[in-house]
Amino acid sequence: MKKTRWILFMCMALFIIGMIACGGGKYADAKKVIAESNEALEDFLGKMDTADNAEDVATALTAFTDEMEKIAPKMKNLAEKYPEFKEGDDVPEELGEEGKKMRELWGKFGTVMMKIQQYANDPEVQKAQEKLQSIMSGL
């Protein structure tokens, strides 16, 4: 009986330590969503670096749009929960490395948009771009 209690106590202690180390704090839920967004954006930027024709651009843009479609509702909820995210350009310090990475990645997004514009006459690129704009405007 003592052994079972000890094991249960150790499991609870490890769980609590894990929660504190991996996601405690005011923006714990935001960090998870931002990490998900960062991963999708980083993948997209990588694909766009190697894209050299309309088909590659449309494929990369469509894949990114599909990912953002899944993430956008979570981002919208965060914006409602944390109004400070909509205020200005400052990323709250509490977001740590994920917040810094987010800013860096979205900073590169503008350059990628110029590359997308090179293929703006392609119907598939237009379709993917319109869908992305629709998703992003809902945020």
The gist of it:
By secondary structure, this protein is an all-alpha fold. It has helices spanning 2-23, 28-50, 54-81, 96-118, 123-137.
Tell me what you see in this structure.
The model is unreliable at 1-23 (pLDDT under 50). The chain is elongated. It is mostly helical. Helix content is 80%, strand content 0%. It has one domain (26-137). It starts with a helix and ends with a helix. Helix 2 packs antiparallel against helix 3 (54-81) and helix 2 (28-50) packs parallel to helix 4.
- Uncertain runs are 1-23
Rounded average pLDDT: 81
The gross shape turns out to be elongated
The count of DSSP E runs of length 2 or more, i.e. the number of strands, is 0
Number of helices: 5
What's the structural blueprint in terms of helices and strands?
Blueprint: H1 2-23, H2 28-50, H3 54-81, H4 96-118, H5 123-137
Task: Give descriptors for this structure.
139 residues; mainly alpha; 5 helices
